[in-house]
């Protein structure tokens, strides 16, 4: 367990930081007097965030973390400007909703590039800049759908199961070099994520009781400070994961019912 009660002057990188969970993480890290670097594709949003935090050290880079060129620029910037990194938050992600048979290979590959390969390769790039720091931490934003599968979200579930397995393996491996790893598994979050889903031919799922991105960000930061290994954020998410473990046949039956049209 790697506790860090104070985030003051911690050097923090957040991907997918122009909206939703990433935007609120950036705001809340800045309120803790952390030194923040946000990466996303929408420059107007990033500029607005930077203006909002002009009293703190707040930087941004415009780019797509799914490209090697952007990941290389991030590593070069951190090495040049900061000389090291304390916290990496792999948050950028996209989704897809609809029947698997109505989808395509390109949809599956796009989700894996953004949700899995981008954080994996960015982590590989930045580990050398984290190894010599005090209590460095990697945070992967996963999903409860990395613990159990949901009908008509086959691509998204596949990527989140993959990041879950990667995070668990990395936790054990990097403990030997002093880097802590945290998996955050939100349930449905009220953000722009759903408006940007790569939707196929199905309506969006029922989202009653969704958590706000500000609450997800606050719970994530508390988990970082407490040195936790994994958090499942909502009571409904915890219940679903528990039911899937003790009665997978029941959860499968529920999902089959949701898939009927």
Could you explain how this protein is built, in words?
- The chain is α/β, with parallel strands linked by helices.
- Helix content is 46%, strand content 13%.
- It is built from eight helices and seven strands, in the order βαβαβαβαβαβαβαα.
- It has helices spanning 20-31, 43-52, 68-81, 105-130, 154-174, 213-226, 235-246, 248-258; strands at 11-15, 35-40, 58-62, 87-90, 137-141, 180-185, 230-232.
- It has a seven-stranded parallel β-sheet with strand order 3-2-1-4-5-6-7, sandwiched between helices.
- Helix 1 (20-31) packs across helix 6, helix 3 runs parallel beside helix 4 (105-130) and helix 4 (105-130) runs parallel beside helix 5 (154-174).
- The model is unreliable at 192-196 and 200-208 (pLDDT under 50).
What's the structural blueprint in terms of helices and strands?
Elements: E1 11-15, H1 20-31, E2 35-40, H2 43-52, E3 58-62, H3 68-81, E4 87-90, H4 105-130, E5 137-141, H5 154-174, E6 180-185, H6 213-226, E7 230-232, H7 235-246, H8 248-258
Parallel strand pairs: 1-2, 1-4, 2-3, 4-5, 5-6, 6-7
Helix pairs in contact: 1-6, 3-4, 4-5, 7-8
């Amino acid at each position: 367990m790697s506790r860090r009660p104070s985030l003051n002057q911690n050097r923090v990188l957040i991907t997918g930081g122009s909206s939703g969970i990433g935007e609120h993480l950036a705001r809340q890290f800045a309120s803790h007097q952390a030194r923040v670097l946000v990466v996303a594709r929408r420059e107007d949003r990033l500029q607005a965030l930077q203006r909002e935090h002009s009293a703190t050290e707040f930087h941004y880079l415009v780019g797509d973390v799914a490209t090697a060129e952007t990941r290389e620029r991030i590593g070069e910037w951190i090495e040049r400007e900061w000389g090291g990194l304390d916290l990496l938050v792999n948050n950028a992600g996209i989704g897809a909703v609809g029947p698997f048979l109505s989808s395509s290979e390109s949809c599956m590959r796009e989700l894996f590039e953004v949700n899995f390969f981008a954080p994996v390769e960015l982590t590989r790039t930045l580990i050398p800049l984290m190894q010599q720091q005090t209590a460095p931490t990697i945070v992967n934003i996963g999903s409860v759908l990395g613990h159990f599968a949901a009908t008509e979200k086959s691509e998204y579930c596949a990527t989140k199961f993959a990041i879950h397995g990667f995070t668990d393996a990395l936790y054990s491996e990097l403990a030997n070099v002093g880097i802590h790893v945290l998996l955050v598994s939100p349930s449905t979050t009220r953000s722009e994520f759903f408006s940007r889903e790569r939707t196929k031919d199905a309506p969006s799922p029922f989202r009653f009781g969704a958590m706000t991105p500000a609450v997800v960000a606050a719970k994530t930061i508390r988990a970082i400070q407490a040195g936790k290994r994994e958090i499942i954020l909502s009571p409904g998410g915890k219940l679903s994961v528990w039911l899937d473990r003790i009665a997978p046949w029941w959860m499968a039956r529920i999902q089959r019912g949701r898939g009927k049209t």
